[in-house]
Prior knowledge:
This protein is mainly alpha-helical. 70% of the residues lie in helices and 7% in strands.
Amino acid sequence: MLPELIDEFYNKLAINFYRNAIEHQKFEGVSTLSSTDMSTLEIVYLLNRPTYSEVTDFLKISTSNANYRINKLITKGYLKREQDPTDKRRYFLNVTEKFMDYYCVNDSLLEQVVKNVRNRVRKEDLEQFESTLAIIIEEMSD
């Protein structure tokens, strides 16, 4: 039962994200991003300030391909690069507010779900759920 519930939770989260993201695209001009662009941006975001080589290694693509993707996203205003103050040859990548505005389209939905769960579930049960969820997240970590 647990694997099915986790799968269903992920699927609902994903479908709501894409539904809201598609709606958001109509107003924000995000439709110029390909699925490859979006996955590259999401990976940069999730890796938390990676270097060019960390992105290249993660995606298992050539350096020239990674540079092309990254530079395209910098030009479009979704990524920025910051020079390492200790090693001027190294750059860290960060997503911009433009990306975060798009990526966070589900924040209000998640806030509402959490509020509703807090109203429907006993405090002790919610604390147990939070502990269990923390274990699941830990198990999924590298």
